[in-house]
Amino acid sequence: MTAAQTFTLPAEGKTLIEITREGPLFIMTMVDKENRFTTEMCKAICDGLDHVAAVVEKEELTEAVLMTRGQDKFYSNGLDIEKAFSVPGFTDHTFMPMLNKILMFGIPTVACLNGHAFAGGCLMAMAHDYRVMRSDRGFMCMNEIDLPSPLPAGMSALLRYKMHPHVYRSCVLEAKRFSAQEALASHIVDGIAEGVEGTIELGKKVALKIAPKAKAGVFYGMIKEDMYPEISERLMKGAKL
């Protein structure tokens, strides 16, 4: 895939994600309006990750990084409840394995939060290695306590390991909506910028800075396996049953 090419998924039907390349930077853009998670969306993301990994391996890249983003005012507004829960085992067999695939991806990852990242969208962002967020619009939030709905162990583990204890408490027990400024102060995100374009440029800047770490090859993924064994085990527990 060259810089001029755009790779779309799924291959047939409505496009859900687009992947473009700018040198070592692979940009995965979710293009389904609010980018709610369904079986089709999760599969498209996983297939996209496999595509990027295959290109990195084929070209033996020593600099590579994945950045994900949404469009307009949404990064992702979480699960499409009606569609997701019409599929038996969606959470255990589809959604959480997708989070694990991002968490353990073999090159650096950056979530570029161009807008709202609610519930499943927040979890997807937290599965990345780094996060940047738009400062003038959008929130990060886990709203299960207000639905009300339980929070599966794998999702809890992801948030607990990626957040300071008092931040985790506010996130899951209060359904706190974190603005960009609050997310930065709470060390949930690594940088903020104004507007969609400003946030994308910041995301690219962060991504290109860490792209050389891909030279570690298989060791990059191995180190992450040692960093997050409990998260991965809990995310994948249901999928193994």
Description:
By secondary structure, the chain is of the alpha/beta class. The protein has a single domain, classed as 2-enoyl-CoA Hydratase, Chain A, domain 1. It is built from ten helices and ten strands. The strands form two sheets. The protein has a seven-stranded mixed sheet with strand order 1-2-3-4-6-8-10, with helices on both faces. Strands 5-7-9 form a three-stranded parallel sheet. The longest helix has 21 residues, at 39-59. It is globular and about 45 Å long.
Overall outline: globular
**How many strand units?**
10
Q: Describe the oligomeric state of these chains in a short phrase.
A: single chain
The assigned structural class equals: alpha/beta
Task: Give the N-to-C terminal Cα separation.
Answer: 37 Å
Relative strand content: 15-25%
Broad CATH class: Alpha Beta
Q: What about the largest sheet? A: 7 strands, mixed
Q: What is the helix tally?
A: 10
The domain tally reads 1
In spatial order, strands of the major sheet run 1-2-3-4-6-8-10
User: Whole-number radius of gyration?
Assistant: 17 Å
Query: Helicity, in percent?
Result: 40-55%
Which spans have pLDDT < 50 for at least 5 consecutive residues?
none
Provide the CATH superfamily. Answer: 2-enoyl-CoA Hydratase, Chain A, domain 1
Q: Which secondary structure elements does this structure contain, and how are they paired or packed?
A:
Layout: E1 6-9, E2 17-22, E3 25-30, H1 39-59, E4 65-69, E5 74-76, H2 81-84, H3 90-103, E6 109-113, E7 116-118, H4 120-127, E8 130-134, E9 140-141, H5 153-162, H6 165-173, H7 180-185, E10 191-193, H8 195-210, H9 218-227, H10 229-237
Helix pairs in contact: 1-3, 3-4, 3-10, 5-10
